[in-house]
Protein backbone atom coordinates (compact mmCIF):
# COMPACT_ATOMS: atom_id res chain seq x y z
CA UNK A 1 0.00 0.00 0.00
CA UNK A 2 1.26 3.48 -0.88
CA UNK A 3 2.05 5.81 1.99
CA UNK A 4 -1.04 7.61 3.26
CA UNK A 5 -1.36 11.34 3.68
CA UNK A 6 -2.20 12.58 7.19
CA UNK A 7 -5.82 13.07 6.14
CA UNK A 8 -6.02 9.61 4.58
CA UNK A 9 -4.60 8.01 7.68
CA UNK A 10 -7.00 9.94 9.90
CA UNK A 11 -9.94 8.84 7.76
CA UNK A 12 -8.72 5.24 7.88
CA UNK A 13 -8.14 5.13 11.65
CA UNK A 14 -11.55 6.68 12.22
CA UNK A 15 -13.10 3.83 10.25
CA UNK A 16 -12.10 1.54 13.12
CA UNK A 17 -14.99 1.96 15.56
CA UNK A 18 -14.36 2.31 19.26
CA UNK A 19 -15.96 -0.52 21.15
CA UNK A 20 -18.09 -0.67 24.29
CA UNK A 21 -18.88 -3.81 26.27
CA UNK A 22 -20.52 -6.71 24.44
CA UNK A 23 -23.37 -8.84 25.79
CA UNK A 24 -24.44 -12.28 24.56
CA UNK A 25 -28.17 -12.99 24.43
CA UNK A 26 -29.61 -15.45 26.99
CA UNK A 27 -30.13 -18.09 24.28
CA UNK A 28 -26.50 -17.72 23.09
CA UNK A 29 -27.52 -17.03 19.50
CA UNK A 30 -26.73 -13.31 19.32
CA UNK A 31 -24.15 -10.87 20.60
CA UNK A 32 -24.84 -7.14 20.92
CA UNK A 33 -22.48 -4.22 21.48
CA UNK A 34 -22.08 -0.45 21.11
CA UNK A 35 -19.84 0.96 18.40
CA UNK A 36 -18.55 4.54 18.37
CA UNK A 37 -17.43 6.08 15.08
CA UNK A 38 -19.20 3.49 12.93
CA UNK A 39 -21.61 6.32 12.09
CA UNK A 40 -22.22 9.94 13.10
CA UNK A 41 -23.02 8.85 16.66
CA UNK A 42 -22.70 5.76 18.83
CA UNK A 43 -25.05 2.95 17.82
CA UNK A 44 -25.98 -0.56 18.90
CA UNK A 45 -25.14 -3.53 16.68
CA UNK A 46 -25.88 -7.25 16.83
CA UNK A 47 -24.44 -10.27 15.06
CA UNK A 48 -25.32 -13.98 15.10
CA UNK A 49 -22.84 -15.97 17.15
CA UNK A 50 -22.62 -18.62 14.41
CA UNK A 51 -21.06 -15.94 12.12
CA UNK A 52 -23.71 -16.61 9.47
CA UNK A 53 -24.33 -12.91 8.80
CA UNK A 54 -22.62 -9.55 8.99
CA UNK A 55 -23.29 -7.21 11.92
CA UNK A 56 -26.75 -5.64 11.93
CA UNK A 57 -27.17 -2.03 13.00
CA UNK A 58 -30.10 -1.89 15.42
CA UNK A 59 -30.12 1.86 16.09
CA UNK A 60 -29.59 4.64 13.59
CA UNK A 61 -30.00 8.11 15.02
CA UNK A 62 -27.62 10.64 13.43
CA UNK A 63 -28.17 13.15 16.25
CA UNK A 64 -27.97 11.25 19.55
CA UNK A 65 -25.74 8.56 21.07
CA UNK A 66 -27.30 5.12 21.64
CA UNK A 67 -25.91 2.66 24.20
CA UNK A 68 -26.59 -1.01 24.79
CA UNK A 69 -28.08 -1.63 28.24
CA UNK A 70 -29.36 -5.23 28.31
CA UNK A 71 -31.07 -8.07 26.49
CA UNK A 72 -34.72 -8.92 27.01
CA UNK A 73 -35.22 -12.38 28.61
CA UNK A 74 -36.60 -13.85 25.37
CA UNK A 75 -33.49 -12.80 23.38
CA UNK A 76 -35.69 -11.07 20.82
CA UNK A 77 -34.84 -7.46 21.69
CA UNK A 78 -32.39 -5.19 23.49
CA UNK A 79 -32.86 -2.29 25.87
CA UNK A 80 -31.07 0.83 24.65
CA UNK A 81 -30.27 4.11 26.38
CA UNK A 82 -30.34 7.19 24.19
CA UNK A 83 -28.28 10.16 25.31
CA UNK A 84 -29.55 13.73 25.14
CA UNK A 85 -26.84 15.88 23.61
CA UNK A 86 -24.16 14.28 25.75
CA UNK A 87 -25.72 15.19 29.11
CA UNK A 88 -26.16 11.51 30.10
CA UNK A 89 -29.82 12.02 31.08
CA UNK A 90 -30.88 9.09 28.98
CA UNK A 91 -34.21 7.71 27.80
CA UNK A 92 -34.66 3.94 27.57
CA UNK A 93 -36.00 2.22 24.46
CA UNK A 94 -36.77 -1.31 23.34
CA UNK A 95 -35.40 -2.29 19.93
CA UNK A 96 -36.57 -5.59 18.47
CA UNK A 97 -34.20 -7.69 16.36
CA UNK A 98 -36.99 -8.01 13.80
CA UNK A 99 -37.37 -4.20 13.56
CA UNK A 100 -33.93 -2.59 13.23
CA UNK A 101 -34.15 1.17 13.59
CA UNK A 102 -37.55 1.16 15.32
CA UNK A 103 -37.10 2.71 18.77
CA UNK A 104 -39.96 1.86 21.14
CA UNK A 105 -39.80 4.31 24.11
CA UNK A 106 -40.01 2.88 27.61
CA UNK A 107 -39.24 5.91 29.79
CA UNK A 108 -39.89 9.63 29.53
CA UNK A 109 -38.11 11.97 27.19
CA UNK A 110 -35.47 14.42 28.50
CA UNK A 111 -35.65 13.38 32.17
CA UNK A 112 -34.34 15.65 34.91
CA UNK A 113 -32.49 12.68 36.45
CA UNK A 114 -30.00 9.93 35.57
CA UNK A 115 -31.15 6.36 34.85
CA UNK A 116 -28.84 3.47 35.75
CA UNK A 117 -29.30 0.08 34.14
CA UNK A 118 -32.60 -1.18 32.78
CA UNK A 119 -33.84 -4.77 32.61
CA UNK A 120 -37.14 -6.17 31.42
CA UNK A 121 -38.97 -8.58 33.73
CA UNK A 122 -39.49 -12.12 32.33
CA UNK A 123 -43.25 -11.48 32.20
CA UNK A 124 -42.60 -8.41 30.02
CA UNK A 125 -44.67 -5.98 32.08
CA UNK A 126 -42.08 -4.34 34.33
CA UNK A 127 -38.81 -2.55 33.72
CA UNK A 128 -36.32 -2.38 36.60
CA UNK A 129 -33.74 0.40 36.82
CA UNK A 130 -32.10 2.89 39.17
CA UNK A 131 -32.86 6.62 39.05
CA UNK A 132 -31.97 9.59 41.25
CA UNK A 133 -35.53 10.89 41.37
CA UNK A 134 -38.32 10.93 43.94
CA UNK A 135 -41.21 9.95 41.73
CA UNK A 136 -43.79 11.32 44.17
CA UNK A 137 -42.48 14.86 43.71
CA UNK A 138 -40.74 14.51 40.34
CA UNK A 139 -37.66 16.15 41.83
CA UNK A 140 -34.08 15.04 41.25
CA UNK A 141 -32.47 13.73 44.45
CA UNK A 142 -28.95 12.78 45.51
CA UNK A 143 -29.39 9.00 46.05
CA UNK A 144 -30.24 6.54 43.30
CA UNK A 145 -33.44 4.64 44.15
CA UNK A 146 -34.43 1.29 42.64
CA UNK A 147 -37.65 1.41 40.61
CA UNK A 148 -40.08 -1.12 39.16
CA UNK A 149 -41.68 0.63 36.20
CA UNK A 150 -45.03 -0.78 35.01
CA UNK A 151 -44.95 -0.43 31.23
CA UNK A 152 -48.73 -0.80 30.93
CA UNK A 153 -49.89 1.71 33.55
CA UNK A 154 -46.79 3.89 33.86
CA UNK A 155 -46.71 3.37 37.63
CA UNK A 156 -43.22 3.47 39.13
CA UNK A 157 -42.84 1.69 42.44
CA UNK A 158 -39.73 2.41 44.53
CA UNK A 159 -38.39 -0.99 45.54
CA UNK A 160 -35.46 0.37 47.55
CA UNK A 161 -34.38 3.79 48.79
CA UNK A 162 -30.64 4.01 49.46
CA UNK A 163 -29.81 6.97 51.68
CA UNK A 164 -26.54 8.10 50.11
CA UNK A 165 -25.59 8.86 46.52
CA UNK A 166 -23.72 6.26 44.51
CA UNK A 167 -23.46 4.76 41.05
CA UNK A 168 -26.00 1.95 41.47
CA UNK A 169 -26.99 -0.44 38.68
CA UNK A 170 -29.65 -2.93 39.86
CA UNK A 171 -29.56 -6.53 38.61
CA UNK A 172 -32.87 -8.31 38.18
CA UNK A 173 -32.70 -12.05 38.87
CA UNK A 174 -33.33 -14.37 35.88
CA UNK A 175 -36.44 -15.65 37.70
CA UNK A 176 -37.75 -12.11 38.07
CA UNK A 177 -38.32 -12.52 41.82
CA UNK A 178 -35.47 -10.44 43.27
CA UNK A 179 -33.31 -7.42 42.56
CA UNK A 180 -29.64 -7.26 43.52
CA UNK A 181 -28.09 -3.87 44.09
CA UNK A 182 -25.41 -1.97 46.05
CA UNK A 183 -25.56 0.67 48.75
CA UNK A 184 -22.91 3.17 49.90
CA UNK A 185 -24.77 4.44 52.96
CA UNK A 186 -22.03 3.86 55.54
CA UNK A 187 -18.79 5.07 53.92
CA UNK A 188 -17.79 6.78 50.68
CA UNK A 189 -15.22 4.04 49.98
CA UNK A 190 -17.55 1.17 50.84
CA UNK A 191 -20.17 -0.73 48.90
CA UNK A 192 -22.45 -3.36 50.42
CA UNK A 193 -24.58 -5.90 48.55
CA UNK A 194 -28.34 -5.73 49.08
CA UNK A 195 -31.36 -7.73 47.90
CA UNK A 196 -35.01 -6.72 47.59
CA UNK A 197 -38.03 -8.67 46.39
CA UNK A 198 -39.71 -7.62 43.15
CA UNK A 199 -42.70 -6.36 45.15
CA UNK A 200 -40.50 -4.10 47.28
CA UNK A 201 -40.53 -6.34 50.34
CA UNK A 202 -37.63 -7.79 52.36
CA UNK A 203 -35.10 -5.12 51.44
CA UNK A 204 -31.97 -6.30 53.23
CA UNK A 205 -28.19 -6.35 53.19
CA UNK A 206 -26.85 -9.79 52.22
CA UNK A 207 -23.05 -9.35 52.02
CA UNK A 208 -20.67 -6.82 53.56
CA UNK A 209 -16.89 -6.79 53.70
CA UNK A 210 -16.84 -3.80 56.08
CA UNK A 211 -18.06 -0.22 56.02
CA UNK A 212 -15.16 0.99 53.84
CA UNK A 213 -14.79 -2.12 51.66
CA UNK A 214 -16.47 -2.90 48.35
CA UNK A 215 -18.66 -5.87 47.47
CA UNK A 216 -20.28 -6.57 44.13
CA UNK A 217 -22.39 -9.45 42.87
CA UNK A 218 -24.04 -10.93 39.80
CA UNK A 219 -26.62 -13.68 39.35
CA UNK A 220 -26.10 -17.26 38.33
CA UNK A 221 -28.47 -18.15 35.45
CA UNK A 222 -30.57 -20.20 37.90
CA UNK A 223 -31.50 -17.05 39.86
CA UNK A 224 -30.81 -18.91 43.11
CA UNK A 225 -27.13 -18.02 43.57
CA UNK A 226 -24.97 -14.93 43.34
CA UNK A 227 -21.28 -14.65 42.43
CA UNK A 228 -19.75 -12.37 45.05
CA UNK A 229 -16.57 -10.33 44.62
CA UNK A 230 -15.51 -8.92 48.00
CA UNK A 231 -12.66 -6.56 48.82
CA UNK A 232 -10.12 -7.35 51.52
CA UNK A 233 -7.19 -5.12 52.57
CA UNK A 234 -4.94 -6.87 50.04
CA UNK A 235 -7.12 -8.40 47.31
CA UNK A 236 -10.57 -9.40 46.10
CA UNK A 237 -11.95 -12.84 46.91
CA UNK A 238 -14.67 -14.79 45.13
CA UNK A 239 -17.58 -16.58 46.75
CA UNK A 240 -21.08 -17.87 46.07
CA UNK A 241 -24.06 -16.57 48.03
CA UNK A 242 -27.05 -18.92 48.05
CA UNK A 243 -30.57 -17.59 48.33
CA UNK A 244 -31.84 -20.66 50.20
CA UNK A 245 -29.06 -20.57 52.81
CA UNK A 246 -28.42 -16.85 53.01
CA UNK A 247 -24.66 -17.18 53.41
CA UNK A 248 -21.47 -17.07 51.34
CA UNK A 249 -19.20 -19.98 50.49
CA UNK A 250 -15.76 -18.61 49.62
CA UNK A 251 -13.99 -20.28 46.68
CA UNK A 252 -10.94 -18.13 45.84
CA UNK A 253 -9.13 -16.15 48.52
CA UNK A 254 -5.54 -15.56 47.38
CA UNK A 255 -3.63 -12.36 48.22
CA UNK A 256 -1.27 -13.02 45.31
CA UNK A 257 -4.06 -12.72 42.74
CA UNK A 258 -5.42 -9.48 41.29
CA UNK A 259 -8.97 -10.51 40.38
CA UNK A 260 -10.97 -7.70 38.79
CA UNK A 261 -14.26 -9.39 37.80
CA UNK A 262 -16.22 -12.64 38.06
CA UNK A 263 -19.52 -13.71 36.49
CA UNK A 264 -21.51 -16.73 35.29
CA UNK A 265 -22.93 -16.25 31.78
CA UNK A 266 -26.14 -17.77 30.50
CA UNK A 267 -25.52 -21.24 29.12
CA UNK A 268 -22.79 -22.02 31.64
CA UNK A 269 -22.55 -23.26 35.21
CA UNK A 270 -18.95 -22.09 35.61
CA UNK A 271 -17.65 -18.79 36.95
CA UNK A 272 -15.58 -16.75 34.52
CA UNK A 273 -12.71 -15.06 36.39
CA UNK A 274 -10.92 -12.04 34.95
CA UNK A 275 -7.53 -11.37 36.49
CA UNK A 276 -5.15 -8.56 35.57
CA UNK A 277 -1.41 -9.01 35.88
CA UNK A 278 0.91 -6.12 35.02
CA UNK A 279 -1.88 -4.45 32.99
CA UNK A 280 -2.49 -7.63 30.99
CA UNK A 281 -5.68 -9.65 31.33
CA UNK A 282 -5.84 -13.37 32.01
CA UNK A 283 -9.04 -15.42 32.15
CA UNK A 284 -10.09 -18.71 33.67
CA UNK A 285 -13.22 -20.76 34.40
CA UNK A 286 -14.01 -21.97 37.90
CA UNK A 287 -16.29 -24.92 38.73
CA UNK A 288 -18.20 -23.72 41.82
CA UNK A 289 -19.04 -27.28 42.89
CA UNK A 290 -15.53 -28.74 42.79
CA UNK A 291 -13.34 -25.61 43.01
CA UNK A 292 -11.43 -26.74 39.94
CA UNK A 293 -10.12 -23.80 37.91
CA UNK A 294 -9.19 -24.00 34.24
CA UNK A 295 -7.07 -21.14 32.86
CA UNK A 296 -7.70 -20.00 29.32
CA UNK A 297 -4.64 -20.62 27.17
CA UNK A 298 -2.42 -17.57 26.67
CA UNK A 299 -2.21 -16.28 23.11
CA UNK A 300 -0.84 -13.01 21.64
CA UNK A 301 -3.29 -10.25 22.44
CA UNK A 302 -6.12 -10.30 24.98
CA UNK A 303 -9.01 -12.74 24.73
CA UNK A 304 -11.85 -12.36 27.24
CA UNK A 305 -14.60 -15.02 27.28
CA UNK A 306 -18.16 -13.73 27.37
CA UNK A 307 -20.51 -16.72 27.07
CA UNK A 308 -20.95 -20.09 25.34
CA UNK A 309 -22.88 -20.17 22.09
CA UNK A 310 -25.08 -22.92 23.46
CA UNK A 311 -24.49 -25.83 21.10
CA UNK A 312 -21.03 -26.88 19.92
CA UNK A 313 -18.80 -26.09 22.90
CA UNK A 314 -17.71 -22.83 21.32
CA UNK A 315 -17.60 -19.55 23.21
CA UNK A 316 -17.91 -15.89 22.25
CA UNK A 317 -15.37 -13.40 23.53
CA UNK A 318 -13.61 -10.12 22.82
CA UNK A 319 -10.12 -10.05 21.32
CA UNK A 320 -7.73 -7.12 20.96
CA UNK A 321 -4.20 -5.72 21.09
CA UNK A 322 -2.50 -2.52 19.98
CA UNK A 323 -2.31 -3.98 16.47
CA UNK A 324 -5.68 -5.78 16.60
CA UNK A 325 -8.80 -3.58 16.83
CA UNK A 326 -11.31 -4.90 19.33
CA UNK A 327 -13.18 -7.77 17.74
CA UNK A 328 -15.89 -10.14 18.93
CA UNK A 329 -14.84 -13.67 18.12
CA UNK A 330 -16.02 -17.26 18.35
CA UNK A 331 -13.55 -19.85 19.64
CA UNK A 332 -13.05 -23.29 21.19
CA UNK A 333 -11.44 -22.91 24.64
CA UNK A 334 -9.77 -26.31 24.32
CA UNK A 335 -8.03 -25.62 20.99
CA UNK A 336 -7.17 -21.98 21.30
CA UNK A 337 -4.87 -20.14 18.89
CA UNK A 338 -5.29 -16.86 16.96
CA UNK A 339 -5.78 -18.51 13.58
CA UNK A 340 -8.79 -20.39 14.93
CA UNK A 341 -10.66 -17.25 16.05
CA UNK A 342 -13.72 -16.44 13.93
CA UNK A 343 -14.55 -12.75 13.69
CA UNK A 344 -18.19 -11.81 14.28
CA UNK A 345 -17.79 -8.05 13.79
CA UNK A 346 -15.70 -8.39 10.58
CA UNK A 347 -13.77 -5.41 11.88
CA UNK A 348 -10.96 -5.50 9.31
CA UNK A 349 -13.49 -5.08 6.50
CA UNK A 350 -14.26 -1.59 7.80
CA UNK A 351 -10.84 0.00 7.14
CA UNK A 352 -7.97 0.21 4.69
CA UNK A 353 -5.50 -0.23 7.54
CA UNK A 354 -3.57 -3.41 8.20
CA UNK A 355 -1.69 -4.53 11.31
CA UNK A 356 1.47 -3.01 9.81
CA UNK A 357 -0.17 0.43 9.91
CA UNK A 358 -0.65 0.25 13.68
CA UNK A 359 2.13 0.96 16.18
CA UNK A 360 2.84 -1.71 18.79
CA UNK A 361 2.63 -0.93 22.50
CA UNK A 362 6.03 -1.50 24.14
CA UNK A 363 6.23 -2.24 27.85
CA UNK A 364 8.12 0.61 29.59
CA UNK A 365 9.01 0.63 33.32
CA UNK A 366 10.64 2.98 35.80
CA UNK A 367 10.85 3.80 39.51
CA UNK A 368 8.93 6.69 41.06
CA UNK A 369 10.02 9.07 43.81
CA UNK A 370 9.47 6.54 46.59
CA UNK A 371 10.92 3.62 44.67
CA UNK A 372 7.55 2.21 43.60
CA UNK A 373 7.73 0.33 40.29
CA UNK A 374 5.51 1.90 37.61
CA UNK A 375 4.52 0.50 34.22
CA UNK A 376 3.37 2.21 31.06
CA UNK A 377 3.17 1.78 27.31
CA UNK A 378 5.47 3.39 24.76
CA UNK A 379 4.47 3.83 21.11
CA UNK A 380 7.36 4.82 18.85
CA UNK A 381 7.12 6.92 15.72
CA UNK A 382 9.02 5.81 12.65
CA UNK A 383 12.17 7.82 11.98
CA UNK A 384 13.19 10.84 14.00
CA UNK A 385 10.28 11.80 16.30
CA UNK A 386 8.86 15.33 16.29
CA UNK A 387 8.42 15.10 20.06
CA UNK A 388 6.71 13.04 22.73
CA UNK A 389 3.07 13.20 23.86
CA UNK A 390 2.05 11.83 27.25
CA UNK A 391 -1.44 10.36 26.95
CA UNK A 392 -2.99 10.01 30.43
CA UNK A 393 -5.89 7.67 31.13
CA UNK A 394 -9.00 8.65 33.06
CA UNK A 395 -10.43 7.20 36.22
CA UNK A 396 -8.01 7.24 37.96
CA UNK A 397 -9.15 3.72 38.99
CA UNK A 398 -8.76 2.45 35.46
CA UNK A 399 -5.83 1.36 33.35
CA UNK A 400 -4.76 1.26 29.75
CA UNK A 401 -4.05 -2.07 28.15
CA UNK A 402 -2.22 -3.17 25.04
CA UNK A 403 -5.02 -2.21 22.65
CA UNK A 404 -5.83 0.19 19.81
CA UNK A 405 -6.46 3.82 20.76
CA UNK A 406 -7.26 5.82 17.65
CA UNK A 407 -5.85 9.05 19.10
CA UNK A 408 -2.54 7.42 19.99
CA UNK A 409 -2.22 5.76 16.61
CA UNK A 410 -2.91 9.05 14.84
CA UNK A 411 -0.26 10.87 16.90
CA UNK A 412 2.29 8.15 16.06
CA UNK A 413 1.39 8.39 12.38
CA UNK A 414 2.13 12.12 12.60
CA UNK A 415 5.65 11.45 13.90
CA UNK A 416 5.18 11.68 17.67
CA UNK A 417 6.25 9.16 20.27
CA UNK A 418 3.39 8.50 22.70
CA UNK A 419 3.82 7.65 26.37
CA UNK A 420 0.84 6.04 28.15
CA UNK A 421 1.57 5.57 31.89
CA UNK A 422 -0.34 3.41 34.37
CA UNK A 423 0.37 5.48 37.49
CA UNK A 424 -0.47 4.41 41.07
CA UNK A 425 -4.19 4.32 41.54
CA UNK A 426 -4.58 2.39 38.30
CA UNK A 427 -6.26 -0.97 38.24
CA UNK A 428 -4.51 -3.84 36.50
CA UNK A 429 -1.70 -4.50 38.99
CA UNK A 430 -2.66 -5.14 42.61
CA UNK A 431 -5.09 -3.96 45.23
CA UNK A 432 -2.26 -2.19 47.07
CA UNK A 433 -1.18 -0.38 43.90
CA UNK A 434 -4.73 0.78 43.21
CA UNK A 435 -5.31 1.91 46.79
CA UNK A 436 -1.97 3.76 46.98
CA UNK A 437 -3.46 6.90 45.40
CA UNK A 438 -5.61 7.41 48.51
CA UNK A 439 -2.56 7.94 50.71
CA UNK A 440 -2.07 11.40 49.18
CA UNK A 441 -5.30 12.02 47.30
CA UNK A 442 -5.43 13.40 43.78
CA UNK A 443 -2.45 15.57 42.94
CA UNK A 444 -0.10 13.45 45.06
CA UNK A 445 2.47 10.86 44.15
CA UNK A 446 0.46 9.61 41.16
CA UNK A 447 1.54 12.84 39.47
CA UNK A 448 5.12 12.12 40.51
CA UNK A 449 4.74 8.77 38.78
CA UNK A 450 3.94 10.60 35.53
CA UNK A 451 6.76 13.09 36.02
CA UNK A 452 9.40 10.46 36.78
CA UNK A 453 8.18 8.49 33.78
CA UNK A 454 8.91 11.47 31.55
CA UNK A 455 12.32 11.85 33.19
CA UNK A 456 13.00 8.15 32.53
CA UNK A 457 12.09 8.64 28.86
CA UNK A 458 14.59 11.48 28.62
CA UNK A 459 17.27 9.40 30.34
CA UNK A 460 16.59 6.56 27.89
CA UNK A 461 17.00 8.90 24.92
CA UNK A 462 13.36 8.47 23.87
CA UNK A 463 12.19 12.00 24.71
CA UNK A 464 13.91 15.40 24.50
CA UNK A 465 13.59 18.23 27.02
CA UNK A 466 11.33 20.98 25.71
CA UNK A 467 9.64 18.64 23.22
CA UNK A 468 7.16 16.91 25.51
CA UNK A 469 3.41 17.55 25.69
CA UNK A 470 0.57 16.04 27.65
CA UNK A 471 -3.13 15.36 27.08
CA UNK A 472 -5.91 13.16 28.40
CA UNK A 473 -9.60 13.15 29.24
CA UNK A 474 -11.29 13.40 32.65
CA UNK A 475 -8.63 12.48 35.24
CA UNK A 476 -6.24 12.55 32.27
CA UNK A 477 -7.38 16.13 31.77
CA UNK A 478 -6.80 16.88 35.45
CA UNK A 479 -3.29 15.40 35.17
CA UNK A 480 -2.68 17.58 32.12
CA UNK A 481 -3.66 20.64 34.16
CA UNK A 482 -1.45 19.46 37.03
CA UNK A 483 1.56 18.96 34.77
CA UNK A 484 1.38 22.39 33.09
CA UNK A 485 1.03 24.10 36.50
CA UNK A 486 3.61 22.04 38.44
CA UNK A 487 6.20 20.46 36.09
CA UNK A 488 9.16 22.44 34.71
CA UNK A 489 8.87 23.55 31.04
CA UNK A 490 11.62 21.17 29.93
CA UNK A 491 9.28 18.35 30.97
CA UNK A 492 5.99 19.85 29.77
CA UNK A 493 6.15 22.33 26.91
CA UNK A 494 2.46 22.04 26.07
CA UNK A 495 -0.73 20.74 27.66
CA UNK A 496 -4.16 19.99 26.21
CA UNK A 497 -6.54 18.95 29.01
CA UNK A 498 -9.82 17.45 27.76
CA UNK A 499 -12.78 17.72 30.15
CA UNK A 500 -10.36 17.99 33.06
CA UNK A 501 -11.00 19.17 36.61
CA UNK A 502 -9.48 22.57 37.41
CA UNK A 503 -11.03 23.46 40.78
CA UNK A 504 -11.83 20.34 42.82
CA UNK A 505 -14.37 22.24 44.91
CA UNK A 506 -16.23 23.47 41.83
CA UNK A 507 -16.02 19.97 40.38
CA UNK A 508 -17.44 18.41 43.55
CA UNK A 509 -20.32 20.89 43.72
CA UNK A 510 -21.34 20.69 40.06
CA UNK A 511 -20.75 17.05 39.12
CA UNK A 512 -23.35 14.27 39.03
CA UNK A 513 -24.54 13.32 42.53
CA UNK A 514 -23.40 9.71 42.15
CA UNK A 515 -19.79 10.84 41.57
CA UNK A 516 -19.38 12.87 44.74
CA UNK A 517 -18.69 9.81 46.92
CA UNK A 518 -15.86 8.91 44.54
CA UNK A 519 -14.25 12.33 45.11
CA UNK A 520 -14.69 11.86 48.87
CA UNK A 521 -13.07 8.43 48.70
CA UNK A 522 -10.11 9.67 46.68
CA UNK A 523 -9.60 12.92 48.61
CA UNK A 524 -10.26 11.60 52.10
CA UNK A 525 -13.34 13.73 52.70
CA UNK A 526 -15.52 16.50 51.32
CA UNK A 527 -14.49 20.09 50.58
CA UNK A 528 -15.94 20.95 53.99
CA UNK A 529 -14.03 18.30 55.93
CA UNK A 530 -10.76 18.53 53.95
CA UNK A 531 -10.71 22.13 52.59
CA UNK A 532 -6.93 22.53 52.53
CA UNK A 533 -6.39 19.35 50.53
CA UNK A 534 -9.06 20.32 47.97
CA UNK A 535 -7.45 23.72 47.57
CA UNK A 536 -3.81 22.61 47.32
CA UNK A 537 -4.70 19.87 44.82
CA UNK A 538 -6.69 22.19 42.53
CA UNK A 539 -4.62 23.32 39.51
CA UNK A 540 -6.66 26.52 39.25
CA UNK A 541 -4.67 28.01 42.14
CA UNK A 542 -1.35 27.52 40.34
CA UNK A 543 -2.06 28.85 36.83
CA UNK A 544 0.41 31.70 37.39
CA UNK A 545 3.15 29.03 37.20
CA UNK A 546 2.29 28.12 33.59
CA UNK A 547 5.19 28.63 31.20
CA UNK A 548 4.24 26.32 28.35
CA UNK A 549 1.47 26.35 25.78
CA UNK A 550 -2.11 25.57 26.84
CA UNK A 551 -5.13 24.37 24.85
CA UNK A 552 -8.36 23.76 26.81
CA UNK A 553 -10.85 21.24 25.36
CA UNK A 554 -14.37 20.82 26.74
CA UNK A 555 -17.73 19.27 25.88
CA UNK A 556 -20.38 21.80 26.83
CA UNK A 557 -22.96 19.17 27.84
CA UNK A 558 -20.59 17.40 30.27
CA UNK A 559 -22.40 16.45 33.53
CA UNK A 560 -19.29 14.81 34.99
CA UNK A 561 -16.55 17.43 34.75
CA UNK A 562 -18.86 20.32 33.98
CA UNK A 563 -18.07 23.45 31.94
CA UNK A 564 -18.02 25.32 35.27
CA UNK A 565 -14.45 24.02 35.58
CA UNK A 566 -13.54 25.90 32.39
CA UNK A 567 -15.41 29.06 33.30
CA UNK A 568 -13.67 29.19 36.67
CA UNK A 569 -10.18 28.64 35.26
CA UNK A 570 -10.67 31.16 32.47
CA UNK A 571 -11.12 33.87 35.09
CA UNK A 572 -7.98 32.72 36.89
CA UNK A 573 -5.98 32.63 33.64
CA UNK A 574 -7.11 36.16 32.81
CA UNK A 575 -6.02 37.41 36.22
CA UNK A 576 -2.62 35.73 35.77
CA UNK A 577 -2.24 37.07 32.18
CA UNK A 578 -1.76 33.54 30.81
CA UNK A 579 -2.58 33.03 27.15
CA UNK A 580 -4.39 29.88 26.09
CA UNK A 581 -6.40 28.31 23.30
CA UNK A 582 -9.95 27.02 23.69
CA UNK A 583 -11.71 24.27 21.73
CA UNK A 584 -15.30 23.53 22.76
CA UNK A 585 -17.92 21.19 21.33
CA UNK A 586 -21.58 22.13 21.79
CA UNK A 587 -22.84 18.58 21.19
CA UNK A 588 -20.43 16.63 23.39
CA UNK A 589 -20.53 15.58 27.02
CA UNK A 590 -17.78 13.89 29.01
CA UNK A 591 -15.20 13.21 26.34
CA UNK A 592 -15.22 13.84 22.61
CA UNK A 593 -16.92 10.91 20.88
CA UNK A 594 -18.56 11.91 17.61
CA UNK A 595 -16.36 11.08 14.60
CA UNK A 596 -16.55 14.53 13.00
CA UNK A 597 -15.61 16.16 16.30
CA UNK A 598 -12.81 13.68 16.93
CA UNK A 599 -11.29 14.46 13.55
CA UNK A 600 -11.27 18.14 14.44
CA UNK A 601 -9.77 17.39 17.85
CA UNK A 602 -7.02 15.04 16.66
CA UNK A 603 -5.85 17.39 13.91
CA UNK A 604 -5.94 20.39 16.24
CA UNK A 605 -3.92 18.53 18.88
CA UNK A 606 -1.30 17.35 16.37
CA UNK A 607 -0.88 20.91 15.09
CA UNK A 608 -0.84 22.32 18.62
CA UNK A 609 1.92 20.01 19.82
CA UNK A 610 3.98 20.38 16.64
CA UNK A 611 3.91 24.19 16.89
CA UNK A 612 4.67 24.05 20.63
CA UNK A 613 7.76 21.91 20.02
CA UNK A 614 8.97 23.84 16.97
CA UNK A 615 11.21 26.25 18.85
CA UNK A 616 12.91 23.68 21.08
Q: How would you explain this protein's 3D organization?
A:
It is a single chain. This protein is α+β, with helices and mostly antiparallel strands and 616 residues long. The protein has a domain at 355-613: Rossmann fold, CATH 3.40.50. The protein has 10 helices and 37 strands. The strands form 8 sheets. It has an 8-stranded mixed sheet with strand order 30-31-33-32-34-35-36-37. The longest helix has 19 residues, at 595-613.
What structural class do you assign from the helix and strand content? Answer: alpha+beta
Q: Tell me the number of helical segments per DSSP (H or I, 4 or more residues long).
A: 10
State the low-pLDDT regions, or none: none
Q: Gyration radius, to the nearest Å?
A: 24 Å
Q: What is the CATH class designation of the domain at 355-613?
A: Alpha Beta
**What is the annotated CATH architecture of the domain at 355-613?**
3-Layer(aba) Sandwich
Quaternary state reads: single chain
What's the CATH topology label of the domain at 355-613?
Answer: Rossmann fold
CA(first)-CA(last) distance: 34 Å
Q: What is the helix content?
A: 10-25%
> Beta-strand percentage?
25-35%
CATH superfamily of the domain at 355-613: Alpha/Beta hydrolase fold, catalytic domain
Task: Summarize the entry for a quick read.
With 616 residues, the chain is an alpha+beta fold.
List keywords for this structure.
single chain, 616 residues, Rossmann fold, five-stranded antiparallel beta sheet, 10 helices
Amino acid sequence: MAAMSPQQYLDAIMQLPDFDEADVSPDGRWVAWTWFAAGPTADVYVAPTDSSAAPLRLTNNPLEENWLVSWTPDSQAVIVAQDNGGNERARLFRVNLAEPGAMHPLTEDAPNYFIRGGQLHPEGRWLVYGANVDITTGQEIEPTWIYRHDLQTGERLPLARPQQAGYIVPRLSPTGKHVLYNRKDRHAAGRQLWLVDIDGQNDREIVSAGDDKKVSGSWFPDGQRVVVLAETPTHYRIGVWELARGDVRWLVDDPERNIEAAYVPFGSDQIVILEDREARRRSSRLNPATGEETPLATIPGTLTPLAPTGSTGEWVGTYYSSRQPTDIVRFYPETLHPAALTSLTRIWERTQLTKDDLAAAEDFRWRSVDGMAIQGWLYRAKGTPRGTIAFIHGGPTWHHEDRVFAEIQFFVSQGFNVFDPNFRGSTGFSRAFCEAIKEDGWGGREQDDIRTGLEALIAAGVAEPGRIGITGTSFGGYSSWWAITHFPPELIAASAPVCGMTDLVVDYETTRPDLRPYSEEMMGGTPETAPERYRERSPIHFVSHIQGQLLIVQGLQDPNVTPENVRAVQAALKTANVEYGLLVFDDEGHGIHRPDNRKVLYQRLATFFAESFAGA
